[in-house]
Amino acid sequence: MDELKKLISDLCGICTVTGSETDADENVLQIRDFDRYEKDRLGNRFLYRNSKKKNAPLMLIDAHFDEVGFIVTEILENGFVRSVKAGSPDMRAVSASTVTIYGKQPVFAVATSTPPHLRTGTDNSVVKESEMMFDTGLSEARARELIRPGDRVCFSKKTRDLRNGRFMAQGLDNKACAAIALYSAVSVPTDEMEYDVCVLLSSGEEGGCMGAVPASKEVKPDLSVVLDAGFGRNGLSDTPRCIVMGKGPAISYSSALDRALTEKIIQTASDDSLPLQVIVENFAPGTNSEFIQHFSGVPSALISLPLFNMHSSSEIVSIPDAHATSDLIMKLICTPDLCAGGGKQ
Question: 273: buried, middle or exposed (CB in 10 Å: 19+, 13-18, 0-12)?
């Protein structure tokens, strides 16, 4: 297993359901390779690496660290558990999924609901949040002993290699991009860095992009590059916002993002023959990028990693795409004047 793929796998193995990022195991973050590490009360993590260039501008590389899941609301008889969504897990893919409830100790459970053909009425659509339960297989007394309302629920952590360099895991949105950001920032020799770099593993994105704004105001960067998962084009969803898997990352043109920075990144990729797809957003991409730009006053660009089955228990990325994204980020760290015309806000 190559180093980047191993880091992606390691990060996907920890549970960071949105709102509980502070509980994440920090041993896998390669903190030792950075010059400074900080964490705030919101669960944002800041990893700094300094260039040898005097008075270098500061580049923020943001990748949100939280993931979708559920929050326990009630323990029922026969060990069944009710929950509400944390973020927006794809309810089309939840039924019969295996999950882990993080109570006093991890509890394995299976998502269950009344099957469509046994429901009353004529609604045979996707299972509703109010109808879904988790079957722990425990007695009610034992379930109440181990689980309480407020406990987080993650899709079971598993990884699998697929054909053509593809990799399946839970939490690839956005642990794959977090791994890319960490790996890229420490792979560039300090004497080649045109920027001081802060890798921000931000909290609360799945709950409404809440962590990145106060974090970016704290960092005060000169520019930001946001990494996030993007919808892969799979023949079922072929809208202009979907990205072809296997052809590298994509960058977004959007009226909510900095056009000059976006075009400089496109030109940099072109000059070095690095694969980079271009997509057009009708306005806001729905990521941390536009929040950092408009609420913190920092020129921002969005780079997306193609991903299949977003917000499900079987998300899929291409490892070659991950390496292509990392190559681009490393090149940007070494490219001067990306933020020319702007300054710290």
Answer: exposed
- Residue count of the chain: 345
Q: Find the helix or strand (DSSP H, E) in which 166 lies.
A: strand 166-169
Q: Is 152 helix (H, G, I), strand (E, B) or coil?
A: strand
53: which 2 tokens?
Answer: 């260039």
| Token pair of 167 as six digits | 């990799």
Predicted TM-score of the model (pTM)? 0.92
Mean pLDDT by 10 residues, the chain (345 residues): 91 91 74 92 94 96 96 94 93 88 95 69 68 93 96 92 95 96 97 97 91 93 96 72 92 94 96 96 86 92 96 95 98 91 43
Residues 6 or more apart whose CB falls under 8 angstroms from that of 102 comprise 15, 20, 151, 152, 153, 154
- How many Cβ atoms are within 10 Å of 6's Cβ, its own excluded? 13
**CA dihedral over 50, 256, 19, 15, signed as positive or negative:** negative
Chain-centroid distance of CA 326 in Å reads 15
- Asked if residues 59 and 333 have their Cβ atoms less than 8 Å apart, the reply is yes
Report whether 317 contacts 177 (CB < 8 A): no
Amino acid at 204: G
Q: Which residues contact 54 (CB under 8 A, 6 or more apart)?
A: none
Domains annotated on the chain, with CATH: 3-67+170-333 (3.40.630.10), 69-155 (2.40.30.40)
Alpha helices in 233-342 (DSSP H): 259-271, 288-296, 319-333
Cα–Cα distance, 326 to 36 (Å, whole number): 21
